[in-house]
């Protein structure tokens, strides 16, 4: 069978990446093709409608897909993930000269977050606020930067706008993933030393390659093993890994999704059956 | 007793300000799997170290009680090692490191650089040392680079002189012709050099300077033409037709032969003639300076073909065929613009008396004889027998270039 994977076109490079992977997989004996989606919700729905066999899922898309599958008594397999998908954290930062020392100090302040559907810049951060005793929208004002809604935070624009709002003094604090805090420091969006970290989320995992239970087990295993065999030492493969932002594939795991599962429930983003329940979410 | 684990001390330095360089340096000589303790006081150190390590394929482990000042342990990955695992040197940096064939994937890498495999294969179709290289190229390039002159200062543009309108018109016509020919001589090496693999960088450098030489010639000839009046002379269809056959020759050796050995070789005689018969100091200066450069172009052309004839026994028959082919293409063409010929006679005559015109006409005939001799001499240098050299020289375009 032809294994058809869905991927979300959050950037034009997605075509380059998956065309390259497709050629490599075909050369290595897997009949593989891909289709592109403009947002993760349709990709997840198509996975459960058996329109596609595999989905390159954001963590939020994984959670919805798993919930939809559970309702139908089906089982999805997160066969692999990137090494760079594991053990991420997000940080809450303030301007260095501000008086804020920890999360509780921000009561009454405005906090910048990313897009409504960003796991790392909105959902998990808001969960951290709640755990720290601050109800978003009640104890603190949340200013969202809805860039690329439907892309589950893959677009960096929302986090960069949040960082800019912090530097402009429009907000008292901002959330972003750890690597973007470092990136914004290097690129000058946040001049080095101008910000301070006042809180850090628990570690969480990001994307995974979700395989449908309609795919024969043997093929799922072969597909996973082949991806796991991709070596950074291989000059044909290395540019693809560089573009996709990994140095090696790792076996998929679900242990790193607990913080997001909890955040989704707290925010009422999806219900237990995977239906979209967030009122202001229009992918 | 086990060795103490290596540590790197960052002080206050943050990852936003380059701390990764010290970590990278400390990791460089460690084996994959070895741990490096990171010590430092930047508050965001552990956060940024984690993000950086993830992107570089290293793992991070939290410190344990008793690890004292260590903020985090980096478990060395192997991404950097893997990236260079199959890297190779693109030959050697000096001329003795030039390879017989330059690999397409070396692309624009410096000769001798350590080349990561996997880059794009560039379309440099001239990548065989036999067809590109000449041992004289490095020294000719060095000479060419040192012999560059500034058109603004090398020529005394404000020198005073007075010429009759007809003599001035002859100068302008010859300058117009020279610009046209020099533009062909600019385009041809520029086109060729974009096809030569940069592994043979001295050849590229030489051709680049050659093109730059022609750029200056175009400038000074134009400036001399416009010095008094402001109107250029004529350009004949046959002259341009002759030059078009040079520009469209795709074979590097044949283009070099037709342009440098035969064309620019003939131009050496023409520029000597203009130096000798120039009616004013500026015309003399521009032609003399251009001649110095052209001599270098001819020397490279001859050396390149001499080198090639040693490795390619079919070369001479291909050169011969190229001359014959060009002659056939141009057989129905007038060749030299009549205005140019007449202007050369006028310049050599210097005045409008029957005796002077006769003298001028004879001088231009001598010039053509000298050009023929020069071409034959260079053809003999390339190994053609004397009678064949004479035949081939006679087939050269009447347009000189």
Characteristic terms for this protein:
heterodimer, A: 283 residues, alpha/beta, D-Maltodextrin-Binding Protein, domain 2, five-stranded mixed sheet, 36% helix, B: 401 residues, mainly alpha, Translation Initiation Factor IF3, Ribonucleotide Reductase, subunit A, two-stranded antiparallel sheet, 15 helices, 5% strand
Provide a compact summary of the structure:
The complex is a heterodimer of chains A (283) and B (401). Chain A has 283 residues and is an alpha/beta fold.
Describe, in plain words, how this protein is organized in 3D.
The complex is a heterodimer of chains A (283) and B (401). Chain A is α/β, with parallel strands linked by helices. Chain A folds into 2 domains: 3-85 and 205-267, Periplasmic binding protein-like II (D-Maltodextrin-Binding Protein, domain 2), CATH 3.40.190; 90-200, D-Maltodextrin-Binding Protein, domain 2, CATH 3.40.190. In chain A, 36% of the residues lie in helices and 19% in strands. Chain A has helices at 13-27, 40-48, 59-71, 119-131, 157-168, 178-187, 217-228, 238-244, 258-267; strands spanning 3-8, 32-37, 54-57, 77-82, 90-95, 110-113, 141-144, 173-177, 195-200, 208-211, 249-251. In chain A, 47% of the residues are buried. The mean pLDDT of chain A is 97. Chain B is mostly helical and 401 residues long. Chain B has 3 domains: 7-82, Translation Initiation Factor IF3 (2-Layer Sandwich); 86-123, no CATH class; 129-395, Ribonucleotide Reductase, subunit A (Orthogonal Bundle), CATH 1.10.620. In chain B, the strands form 2 sheets. Chain B has a 4-stranded mixed beta sheet with strand order 1-2-4-3, covered by helices on one side. Chain B has a two-stranded antiparallel ribbon with strand order 5-6. The longest helix of chain B has 31 residues, at 281-311. The A-B interface holds A 83-84, 87-89, 91, 178-179, 181-182, 185-186, 192-193, 196-197, 200, 231-233, 235-236, 238-239, 245, 247-248 and B 14-17, 43-44, 47-48, 50-52, 54-57, 77-79, 82-83, 85-86, 116-118.
């Amino acid at each position: 069978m032809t294994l058809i994977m869905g991927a979300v076109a959050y950037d034009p490079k997605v075509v380059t990446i998956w065309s390259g992977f497709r050629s490599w997989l075909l050369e290595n004996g897997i009949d593989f093709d891909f289709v592109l989606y403009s947002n993760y919700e349709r990709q997840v729905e198509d996975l459960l409608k058996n329109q596609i066999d595999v989905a390159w899922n954001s963590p939020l898309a994984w959670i919805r897909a798993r919930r939809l599958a559970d309702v139908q008594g089906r089982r999805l397999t997160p066969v692999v993930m990137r090494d760079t998908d594991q053990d991420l954290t997000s940080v809450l930062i303030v301007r260095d000269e501000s008086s804020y020392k920890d999360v509780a100090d921000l009561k009454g302040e405005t906090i910048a977050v990313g897009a409504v559907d960003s796991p790392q810049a909105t959902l998990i951060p808001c969960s951290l606020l709640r755990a720290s005793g601050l109800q978003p929208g009640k104890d603190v004002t949340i200013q969202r930067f809805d860039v690329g809604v439907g892309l589950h935070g893959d677009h960096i624009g929302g986090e960069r706008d949040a960082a800019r709002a912090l530097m402009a003094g429009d907000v008292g604090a901002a959330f972003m993933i750890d690597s973007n805090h470092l990136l914004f420091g290097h690129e000058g969006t946040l001049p080095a030393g101008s910000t301070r970290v006042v809180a850090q989320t628990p570690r969480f995992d990001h994307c995974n390659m979700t395989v449908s239970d309609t795919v024969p087990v043997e093929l799922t295993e072969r597909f996973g093993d082949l991806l796991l065999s991709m070596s950074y030492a291989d000059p044909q493969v290395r540019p693809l890994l560089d573009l996709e932002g990994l140095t090696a594939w790792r076996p998929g795991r679900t242990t790193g999704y607990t913080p997001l599962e909890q955040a989704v429930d707290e925010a009422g983003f999806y219900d237990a059956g995977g239906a979209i329940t967030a009122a202001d979410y229009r992918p | 007793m086990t060795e103490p684990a290596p540590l790197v001390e960052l002080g206050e330095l943050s990852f936003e300000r380059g701390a990764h360089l010290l970590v990278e340096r400390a990791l460089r000589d460690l084996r994959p799997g070895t741990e490096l303790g990171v010590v430092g006081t930047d508050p965001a150190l552990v956060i940024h170290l984690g993000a950086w390590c993830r992107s570089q394929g290293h793992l991070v482990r939290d410190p344990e009680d008793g690890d004292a000042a260590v903020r985090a342990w980096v478990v060395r990955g192997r991404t950097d090692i893997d990236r260079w695992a199959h890297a190779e040197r693109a030959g050697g940096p000096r001329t003795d490191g030039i390879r017989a064939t330059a690999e397409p994937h070396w692309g624009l890498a410096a000769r001798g650089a350590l080349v990561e495999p996997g880059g794009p294969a560039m379309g440099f179709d001239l990548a065989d040392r036999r067809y590109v290289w000449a041992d004289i190229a490095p020294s000719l390039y060095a000479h060419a680079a040192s012999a560059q002159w500034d058109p603004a200062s090398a020529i005394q543009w404000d020198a005073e002189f007075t010429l009759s309108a007809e003599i001035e018109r002859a100068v302008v016509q010859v300058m117009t012709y020279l610009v046209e020919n020099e533009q062909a001589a600019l385009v041809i090496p520029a086109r060729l050099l974009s096809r030569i693999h940069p592994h043979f960088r001295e050849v590229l450098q030489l051709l680049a300077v050659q093109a730059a030489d022609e750029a200056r010639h175009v400038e000074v000839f134009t400036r001399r033409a416009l010095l008094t009046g402001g109107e250029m002379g004529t350009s004949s269809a046959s002259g341009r037709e002759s030059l078009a056959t040079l520009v469209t020759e795709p074979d590097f050796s044949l283009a070099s032969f037709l342009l440098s050995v035969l064309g620019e070789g003939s131009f050496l005689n023409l520029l000597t003639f203009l130096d000798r018969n120039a009616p004013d100091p500026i015309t003399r200066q521009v032609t003399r300076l251009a001649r110095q450069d052209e001599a270098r172009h001819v020397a490279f052309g001859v050396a390149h073909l001499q080198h090639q004839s040693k490795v390619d026994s079919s070369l001479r028959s291909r050169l011969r065929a190229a001359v014959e082919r060009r002659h056939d293409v141009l057989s129905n063409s007038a060749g030299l613009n009549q205005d140019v010929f007449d202007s050369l006679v006028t310049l050599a005559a210097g005045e409008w008396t029957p005796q002077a015109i006769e003298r001028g006409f004879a001088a231009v005939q001598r010039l053509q004889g000298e050009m023929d001799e020069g071409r034959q001499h260079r053809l003999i240098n390339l190994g053609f027998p004397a009678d064949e050299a004479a035949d081939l020289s006679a087939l050269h375009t009447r347009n000189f270039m």
